[in-house]
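Residues and backbone
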Amino acid sequence: MKRWWTVVAYVIIPGIDGSDGQHWQTLWERQWGTSAVRISPASWSAPDLDDWVGAVQKAYDDASQRASRVVLVAHSLGCWAASTWLNKNPSSPTVGAFLVAPPDPHEPVFPRQAAATFMAVSAQPLPCPALVVGSANDPYCTPEAAAGFAARWEARWHLAGACGHLNSASGLSSWQHGRELLDSLTQQ
């Protein structure tokens, strides 16, 4: 039996200031080449939610021209931009949302001044399959809060262990376990 594989395009949605060259998102983006589109908000360092959601829309439009299946791959503050965009676009044919290390806006370490427009975000059911990945020792979100976001997003939840904020400082490199988790989301 011959299988037909649909090409997937990925929208990369980093957190504040973007993902540096050693971040798993950047490494995956390099591997995916033209199948990946990174958002480009004007407000990387002082995130404005509307600007970021607009950047997700622009990247999504670009990615959907490259493939019939689009997956959002978000980290940190990017999780809130992704979920906000998804809730504003419930009929988008998004295949899935991979949401890693969403920060808790109620935690004292949340960048309240830099990301003031993100303070009122709330987790609501998402219109596509989603997987939330958290860490046992993320300084920006407790595992309990991340699991709560996953429940309210109606997403699968995965605790990746004690990996900090699941970023470059976590030493994940190309994060093979994360790729396996992403594959489990997109192969449903």
